């Protein structure tokens, strides 16, 4: 595929803008914007992970908040054991090192995704939507009942994880960390989507039977994609736990899965940048509407409804329809 | 033994409530192929409208037509304005559009009725208990719910298996295109089925009012359980929904009643209670996972 030079140029401009964002926010006398942008980046990673199975693989998972929550809880639980000085299960010491907790969060969510995916992918269609939802609810109730880790109230992480000499409580530092991770993650996704594996996945979405006729095992490819996606959500959850310094079962509530889906569809299903645009749009919309009226959910509901009913392909498609008639 | 029977009846009461919701949901999915997340909102609307009228007029009976009418009208409006455009879309669009509807309904109800839950007293005729067996007293109202639920189930059975409309419904869930090709006004059928489903959901909501608090969010709580019922029973099968509702109702109630006690024998009191409550809440999802692993299409799935 030929990529026009303008695409590279606009990407470079975007990157420069993103790097300058905290400075610009300070100059505009609105430093809180850096925090908003950090949240957008974190939710963008989660939404992009969901989009990987949903948009490219055609698997409508309604339980991705589970992996987001697990990622967060790995960080929270490790920190609790670190601060109390008692080992987890009597064996593993806790940790507050970002380079330990985040990779562990990714691994644990990947393992959970392998388990849930292996069971869920035996079904398809509406059953798949419901069984992923059911597994997420199961985990939600499990964490609600774990009094050791805060139960309903969640876990407070008094100090963010340590990473070298960086102070992750500092908003711009956290922002740059998330930006670096988000960009690397997006690059990785781009490589995967354009690889042979990605092509098989897209082929599976179009026609599972055709792929089977080519001698490919659909189940294995889908499971691998599901695991990658779960790991991505776990990564986002681990970052969120560090950013908010708080985890709670709400992170894996089913409405969170719904929100992630909304972000994906807002930005455009099956596009690389879409989920980030969608996450941005969703968070902006939420804060704008919330500032304007207490009944912001009403507005959000109507916008969502109109978007689904009258645009096909979300905001990105809407923009390209508006600005590039030929696209 | 008395406790066991009482829990069994409680389980049946939860089961028939679930069935009233699941019957509509499974029909809507089976015939129109639409996942309707807003079904729980219609349950909530039935509960609010009925309870409000009952509380204002002081008559429990007057609340019934109010709740049913509000639910059915909402259902028709939702079908006409939103769901009609989703028939040919994929499940993702349906999930998102009806997720939007949930946000709208929840906020609208909050704006109209406020955040305080509504309560309604039991009707005088149903407020006592009856002695079913020596030593087993059971609230009359809960028995009435079970009776209504079983009556509706019988009525639905007759409607679906013995009438012309029922024949079309069965035909529609087997092969939608063919029914349309035979010249049946499928749109009318769709609206009728949707309204029927909404009516049953409203009935369930109103009847649950005196037992649970009527509040925003009550719809989603039961909606997810209802989905579990529909999936376990087999999507599109009313019979499956019936058996799955009772199975789930009894399982859930039994776990909640007995599990904390069992755990308390091996753990400390409060922690056992918390863990017991957690595992009981997980029970139905675990049941669903097991059923789907053995029969990926549910217990009573049709050929579709």
TrEMBL record, chain A:
Single GO cellular component term: plasma membrane
Protein location: Cell membrane
Membrane topology of this protein: Multi-pass membrane protein
Coiled-coil annotated residue ranges, if any: none
UniProt-listed CDD domains: TM_PBP1_LivM_like
Keywords for the protein's UniProt record, in alphabetical order: Cell membrane, Membrane, Transmembrane, Transmembrane helix
Transmembrane segments: 41-58, 65-82, 102-121, 128-146, 174-193, 219-240, 260-285, 297-319
GO terms assigned for molecular function: branched-chain amino acid transmembrane transporter activity
UniProt cross-references to Pfam families, sorted A to Z: BPD_transp_2
Entry-linked InterPro entries: ABC_transp_permease, LivM-like
Alphabetized PANTHER family for the sequence: ABC TRANSPORTER ATP-BINDING PROTEIN, HIGH-AFFINITY BRANCHED-CHAIN AMINO ACID TRANSPORT SYSTEM PERMEASE
Record-given protein name: Branched-chain amino acid ABC transporter permease
Organism: Stappia taiwanensis
TrEMBL record, chain B:
Transmembrane segments: 12-35, 42-60, 66-83, 95-114, 140-160, 188-206, 274-294
GO cellular component: plasma membrane
Molecular function terms from GO: transmembrane transporter activity
Topology versus the membrane: Multi-pass membrane protein
Chain segments annotated as coiled-coil in the UniProt record: none
UniProt keyword annotations, A-Z: Amino-acid transport, Cell membrane, Membrane, Transmembrane, Transmembrane helix, Transport
Pfam families for this protein: BPD_transp_2 (PF02653)
GO biological process, one term: amino acid transport
Transmembrane as UniProt keyword: yes
Subcellular location: Cell membrane
PANTHER family: ABC TRANSPORTER ATP-BINDING PROTEIN, BRANCHED-CHAIN AMINO ACID TRANSPORT SYSTEM PERMEASE PROTEIN LIVH
Family listed: Belongs to the binding-protein-dependent transport system permease family. LivHM subfamily.
Annotated protein name in UniProt: Branched-chain amino acid ABC transporter permease
């Amino acid at each position: 595929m030929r990529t026009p030079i303008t695409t590279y140029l606009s990407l470079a401009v975007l990157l420069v803008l993103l790097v300058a964002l905290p400075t610009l926010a300070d100059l505009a006398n609105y430093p809180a914007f850096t925090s908003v942008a950090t949240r957008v980046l974190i939710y963008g990673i989660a939404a992009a992970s969901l989009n990987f199975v949903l948009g490219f693989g055609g698997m409508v998972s309604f339980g991705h908040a589970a992996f987001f929550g697990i990622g967060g809880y790995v960080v929270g639980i490790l920190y609790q054991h670190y601060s109390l000085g008692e080992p987890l299960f009597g064996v593993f010491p806790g940790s507050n090192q970002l380079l330990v907790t985040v990779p562990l969060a990714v691994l644990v969510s990947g393992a959970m995704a392998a388990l849930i995916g292996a069971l869920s992918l035996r079904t398809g269609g509406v059953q798949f939507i419901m069984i992923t939802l059911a597994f997420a609810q199961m985990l939600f109730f499990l964490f609600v009942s774990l009094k050791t880790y805060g139960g309903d109230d969640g876990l407070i992480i008094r100090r963010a994880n340590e990473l070298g000499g960086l102070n992750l409580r500092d908003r711009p530092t956290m922002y740059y960390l998330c930006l670096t991770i988000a960009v690397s993650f997006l690059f990785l996704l781009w490589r995967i989507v354009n690889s042979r594996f990605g092509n098989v996945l897209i082929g599976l979405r179009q026609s599972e039977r055709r792929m089977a006729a080519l001698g490919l095992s659909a189940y294995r490819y889908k499971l691998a994609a599901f695991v990658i996606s779960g790991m991505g959500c776990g990564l986002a959850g681990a970052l969120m736990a560090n950013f908010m310094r708080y985890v709670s079962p709400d992170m894996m509530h089913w409405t969170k899965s719904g929100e992630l889906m909304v972000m994906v569809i807002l930005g455009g299903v099956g596009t690389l940048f879409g989920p980030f645009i969608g996450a941005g749009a969703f968070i902006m919309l939420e804060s704008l509407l919330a500032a304007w009226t207490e009944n912001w959910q009403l507005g959000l509901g109507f916008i969502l409804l109109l978007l689904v009913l009258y645009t096909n392909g979300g905001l990105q498609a809407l923009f390209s329809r508006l600005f590039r008639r030929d696209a | 033994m008395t406790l066991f029977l009482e829990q069994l009846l409680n389980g049946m009461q939860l089961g028939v409530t679930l069935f009233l919701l699941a019957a509509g949901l499974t029909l809507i999915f089976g015939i129109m192929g639409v996942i309707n997340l807003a079904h729980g909102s219609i349950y909530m609307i039935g509960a609010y409208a009925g309870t409000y009228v009952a509380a204002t007029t002081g008559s429990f009976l007057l609340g019934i037509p109010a709740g049913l009418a509000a639910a059915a009208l909402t259902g028709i409006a939702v079908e006409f304005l939103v769901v009609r455009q989703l028939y040919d879309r994929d499940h993702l669009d349906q999930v998102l559009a009806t997720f939007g509807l949930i946000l709208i309904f929840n906020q609208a109800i909050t704006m109209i009725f406020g955040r305080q839950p509504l309560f309604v007293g039991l009707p005088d005729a149903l407020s006592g208990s009856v002695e079913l067996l020596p030593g087993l007293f059971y609230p009359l109202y809960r028995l009435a719910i079970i009776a209504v639920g079983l009556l509706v189930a019988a009525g639905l059975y007759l409607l679906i298996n013995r009438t012309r409309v029922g024949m079309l419904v069965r035909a529609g869930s087997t092969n939608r295109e063919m029914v349309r090709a035979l010249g049946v006004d499928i749109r009318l059928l769709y609206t009728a089925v949707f309204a029927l489903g909404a009516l049953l959901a409203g009935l369930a909501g109103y009847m649950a009012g005196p037992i649970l608090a009527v509040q925003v969010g009550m719809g989603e709580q039961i909606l997810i359980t209802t989905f579990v019922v529909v999936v376990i029973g087999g999507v599109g099968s009313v019979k499956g929904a019936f058996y799955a509702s009772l199975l789930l109702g009894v399982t859930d109630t039994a776990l909640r009643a007995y599990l904390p006690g069992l755990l308390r024998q091996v753990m400390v009191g409060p922690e056992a209670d918390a863990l017991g409550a957690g595992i009981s809440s997980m029970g139905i999802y675990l049941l669903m996972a097991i059923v789907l692993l053995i029969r990926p299409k549910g217990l009573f799935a049709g050929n579709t």
